[in-house]
Amino acid sequence: MAKIAESELVINPDGSVYHLNLRPEDIASNIITVGDPGRVPMVSKYFDAIEVKKEKREFVSHTGRVGKKRITVISTGIGPDNIDITINELDALANIDFGSREPKAELTSLNIVRIGTSGSLHPEVPVDSFVASTYGVGLDNLLNFYDYKPNLGEASLEDELKAFLEYTGRLPFYVCEGSPALMEALGPGKTQGITLTSPGFYAPQGRELRAKARFDVRFFQSLAKFRFRDYPITNFEMETSAIYGLSRLLGHRALSTNVIIANRPNGKFSKDPYKAVDTLIQDVLSLISSSALF
User: What is the assigned CATH class of domain 24-290?
Assistant: First the structure.
């Protein structure tokens, strides 16, 4: 393969990748992504040791150890566009030789776990509970720019959801599956369901302030009736499908874990979302530290 041009893979003068400001040795093979930069120290405070602290723009990264497990926690900011940067640059750090600008002969498969916040579409999935996403349904257009070939499960879900949706032609979507292996390791004790990934917080999730939404919240709540292999559409957020699609395309394992901080059908919001997120962080770190997969 030809060398990757300087304009395509931008490397900073200190040898770090352009946006994340990280060098290859700065990252672990176990990655936790969070949206909020302020959530990075919420995770790393449970590390036994911290080796690396870097930041640039919204991308804050800490790498350290929990027991013998080396872990990197990195903030992505909000939305699928930032996930495009994060996953591609993490993969470059792991699998491209920055000296030769060529992919390495032996590729590394990363474990990528999202710890995020989310809104529930079901009255019975209450605030402060946890959801692990079996599939991400992307309402954004990110994966349309990649040569992504759906697997059998993704294609089947897409066909069934198209048949279910009345407005399919006006609401395009794509489907990406999370890692079954990571689900087995991190899913126990959590509601497992399909996650909608929206490109925004307001109209893309059926919210109206002053600007009228094309699809109101009742339309999105009607999706809660959909089932695929006994999995309902459980929740809304803004990163999962992009993480799943790019991770599978690049040979990485990914799982999105979510704290429900808002229940849309009953209009409730968590009284203490900080505490709920902290509980999920401890749960995920405990499961990572005890699993041979990581």
Answer: alpha beta
